[in-house]
Amino acid sequence: MNTWTQTPPTPIASATGPKQFAPFKNWLAPGKAIGLILPAIVLLLWHLAATRGWIDPVFLPEPAKVLQAFVKMLTEQDLLLDFVVSLKIVSQGFLYGASAAVALGVAAGLSQRFERFLTPTFDTIRHIPGIAWFPLIVLWLGLGAPAKVLVIAKTVFFPVFLNTLQGIRSVDKSYIELAEVMTLSRFQLVRKIILPAATPTIMVSLRYAAGLAWALVVVAEGLSGLEGLGFLIFRAQGLLLTDQLLVCMVVIGVVGFGIDRGMYLLQKRVLRWKQGYEG
Fold first, then answer.
1. Are 113 and 127 in contact (CB under 8 A)?
2. What does the pLDDT read at residue 3?
3. Alpha-carbon distance 205 to 160, whole Å?
4. What is the dihedral of CA 52, 58, 59, 65, to 10 degrees?
5. Phi, psi of 235, deg, nearest 5
6. Three-class SS of residue 160?
7. How does residue 1 score in pLDDT terms, banded at 50, 70 and 90?
8. 274 touches 200 (CB < 8 A)
9. H or E element that contains 134
């Protein structure tokens, strides 16, 4: 009778346990931790400037006092609500503007006649800043969220539209010739050749536009409105509440960084098939 031995299975805990902390180890790796050096230096200089009297505390309070102001605004005031309001406006403006831009950019990229139809009007509107439209839009829509959403959508639209158009027009001609040899239909050409080749340019424009939308909402809320991070910034400036002003600035910067990282990860996921130089 034949006998055989079987290697016992590896325990699940030993196979998965150490990997649970892999993301944290990656952040602590030398290549990742280098990004924390400059923020640490800035924080140290800020602390020294405030505590040693290099700058009047009225204009630059200590980091500890800014942290106390953050806790107070979060627990006793409506900082979280204002943040949600700003995020909602940005999300709507970005979604509307980017969706329309990609759709019209693809259409214009595929049809020179349609591009010539849009170009004179779009080029004229594009050179009028979004903030310049704001007073007129307020007259139309009032001081509520729709006016801010429309201004952000307009600002987001043109960078995405132009990059989508350029991305399609920059598709390598050899790809088109190959599609003709393979006798692909018009729909197959667009779906399998043109859109994948233009996607890197489109994704970069979406990442840029997301940051642009988040920055613009501060200005829009500061010029009009009674809620949102932009309103808090202008209110803190008027009342000389520098600690609250810095809280809002830090929150805006951190959230903006998070939005950019999120778009970067999305870009990497969408373009995981594309290999390039990584430095």
1. no
2. 46
3. 5
4. 70
5. -65, -45
6. helix
7. very low
8. yes
9. helix 130-141
Cα atoms in the 13 Å half-sphere on the side-chain side of 62 = 7
- CB neighbour list of residue 185: distance below 8 Å, 6 or more residues apart: none
Q: Which two tokens stand for residue 73?
A: 């605004």
| Residue that is written with structure tokens 């325990």 in the block | 11
How many residues comprise the chain? Answer: 279
> Both tokens of residue 249?
């600035």
Is residue 96 within 8 Å of 182, Cβ to Cβ? no
Closest C-alpha to 222, from 247, 253, 245, 255: 245
Residue 67 CB neighbours (<10 A): 14
pLDDT of residue 210: 93
Helix axes 112-126, 145-169, angle to 10 degrees: 140
Per-residue pLDDT reduced to its tens digit, 181-225: 787 787 888 888 888 889 999 999 999 999 999 988 888 887 777
* pTM for the model: 0.79
Mean pLDDT of 47-72: 86
Task: Write down all domains in the chain, each with its CATH number in brackets.
Answer: 84-228 (1.10.3720.10)
- Write down the residue that tokens 């630059």 correspond to: 60
| Two tokens, residue 140 | 């139309």
Q: What is the CA radius of gyration of the chain?
A: 25
Residue given tokens 């609250």 in the structure block: 244
Instruction: Compute φ and ψ for 54, nearest 5 degrees.
Output: -65, -30
DSSP annotation of 3? -
Looking at residue 245, its amino acid is L
d(CA 255, CA 82): 13
Q: What is the pLDDT of residue 7?
A: 47
